[in-house]
Amino acid sequence: MTTKKELVQFLLAKKIIVTGKLMAMIKEQNDQETEKLYTDIQNKDDDSIRKIIFSYLQTEKQKEQQNKDVEKENTLATNSAQEQNKEATNDASDIEEVKEGTVSIISSFTTKEVNKEIQDFVSYFNERYKTLERLLRGRQELDNVTAIKRALQKEEREHVAIIGIVKEINETKNKNIIITLEDSTGEMKALVSKNKREIYEAGKSLVRDEVVGIVGVAGKGIIFVEKIVWPEVPVYNELKKSPIEEYAIFLSDIHVGSKQFLAAAFEKFLKWINGEAGDEKQRALVKKIKYVFIVGDVVDGVGIYPGQEHDLEMTDIYDQYAACGALLAQIPKHMKIIICPGNHDAMRLAEPQLPLYEDMAKPLYDLPNAVMVSNPAMVNVGRTEGFPGISVLMYHGYSFDYYIANVDEIRNNGGYDRADLVMKYLLQRRHLAPTHASCVYIPFRDYDPMVISKIPDIFATGHLHKTSVSSYRNITLICGSCWQGKTAFQEKMGHNPEPARVPLVNLQTREVKILKFME
Ligand SMILES: [Fe+2]
To answer: Among 126, 251, 266, 503, which has the minimal tally of Cβ within 10 Å of its Cβ?
Structure first.
């Protein structure tokens, strides 16, 4: 007689995710039921086991808790073997006709962490200043820019323009904003009057350590600010469109290994992407999906926060990646899966995070269609002769928490529900984490990898567990959803995740749709 423990071990060995629901059902069943389930799945291939387990989960008890769409999936999953074989045969022949997508990595960081000294931070900020200063010098408003040392010598009421790193931001007794700016020649104060509404609002959005241009009138050792200039994205940024109809989808925050992982919804997504769900039009469309972006937090990780072990279905990181690999292996092989790490993954937290550790995430490296990149990374897809391709900036979004908490224009306009506002904010600053305190980072001596030096066509993020789709100066802004139910931490913080949504981008028209796999 098979014990329940043996059954669970068998499932894990087959890389089947033993979710909380499944575990509870196994615990509740009697010995005969355990034996029957074990007999049913023994000597079956992985795909058949998955289907049997999926059907098993759809018992009367579970049906009460499942939404109508998932019940529909149950019907699909229990189709006759003959029908399934027919579908499989059709799919195989159709997939052969589909051309693979083209992916080239523009930037993915591979430099290993080494011991850092104070001087590294100095060099790092100097490099950031130099790169962003070059961008700002191209701006018409800063034609007459001078070094701070010279600006300090200007006569009162003279026009003055400087470029500096924001060292401090304070408020005067009269509620004006006083900024201290710094360049390699010195530092200088600039005053933003509360009576100049538009400039005051702009001034309130400043954060420490960002690089800006300040235009104004000289006072005694101070500038009275008339305009704040950010590095920005050019107004006339080209909207690139692929000459062929092909699609990219964006996933993030799958969190495999969490008790809250939404296995049924992910199964539903996998069926859809395999052309086993939806109408004829949908089935035809999925064959044209060439790129699957996964923007971090592919697993829930281990030891990410105190007490996480109570929230984990799988407490071994190797098991988590094995289960994740088994899921992603079901994505059709003609689709390229581009994966970067997030703060829950097996990688140092300091950014840029390198591609996932190869030993721990081996099941993902073993996927023939996976492309592993760092966080952040820039990837080009769909390049053909005569078309330069679509550039996608991937950044998980760990720094977003800081800007949501500290920038009024983001916090007061939707905060965690508005990833698009954070993305726009960072694009204007051409930096993914301008403030020192907004993320843990590696201070490289010779460049700042968090500077957005090249303008992407698509800026893809995650981390907030809520989809957001928008556009800023022809850059498509996408925040992925999640595949994890609401955690106790999110409940406490008042976050409102929207799981199981998938933004789909038509690279030919650049239109974006959001598909829902759970109501
Ligand atoms: Fe996440």
So the answer is: 126
Q: b vs e for 28-66, b when ≥16 Cβ sit within 10 Å of the residue's Cβ?
A: ebeeeebeebbeebeeeeeeebbbbbbebbbeeebeeeb
Ligand 1 centre distance from Cα of residue 232 (Å): 28
Residues lining ion ligand 1 (Cβ < 5 A) are 253, 297
The 10s digit of each residue's pLDDT in 127-172 is 888 999 999 998 889 999 999 999 999 999 999 999 999 999 999 9
- H helix or E strand, kind and range, residue 363: helix 362-365
The pLDDT value recorded for residue 24 is: 66
Ligand 1 centroid vs 41 CA: distance in angstroms?
33
Q: How many Å lie between the centroid of ligand 1 and the Cα of residue 283?
A: 30
Question: In this structure, which CATH number among 2.40.50.140, 2.40.128.590, 3.40.50.2300, 3.40.50.720 belongs to the domain 140-229?
Answer: 2.40.50.140
157, 160, 164, 167 alpha-carbon torsion, rounded to 10°: 0
Ligand 1 mean position, distance from CA 348 (Å): 15
Q: Is 52 helix (H, G, I), strand (E, B) or coil?
A: helix
Has residue 81 got a pLDDT over 60? no
297 C-alpha to ligand 1 centroid (Å): 5
Across the range 391-411, mean pLDDT stands at 95
The Cβ-side half-sphere exposure at 405, using a 13 Å CA radius, reads 10
Q: Report the mean per-residue pLDDT for the chain.
A: 86
167-195 average pLDDT score: 96
CA of 54 to the centre of ligand 1 (A): 25
Give this prediction's pTM.
Answer: 0.81
| Residue 90 predicted with pLDDT over 50 | no
CA of 465 to the centre of ligand 1 (A): 6
**Domain spanning 103-112+235-516: CATH 3.60.21.50:** yes
Paired residues of 83 in beta bridges: none
**How far, in Å, is the centroid of ligand 1 from the Cα of 463?**
5
Determine the distance separating the centroid of ligand 1 and the alpha carbon of 170, expressed in angstroms.
34
CB 475 within 8 Å of CB 486: no
Q: How far is the CA of 23 from the centre of ligand 1 (A)?
A: 24
Separation of CA 345 and ligand 1 centre (Å): 9
Q: From residue 226, how far is each of 40, 112, 161 by CA, in Å?
A: 75, 44, 10
Residue 177 pairs in a beta bridge with 171, 192
pLDDT computed for residue 113 by the predictor: 64
Cα 464 to chain center, whole Å? 8
What separation in Å is there between the alpha carbon of 224 and the centre of ligand 1? 43
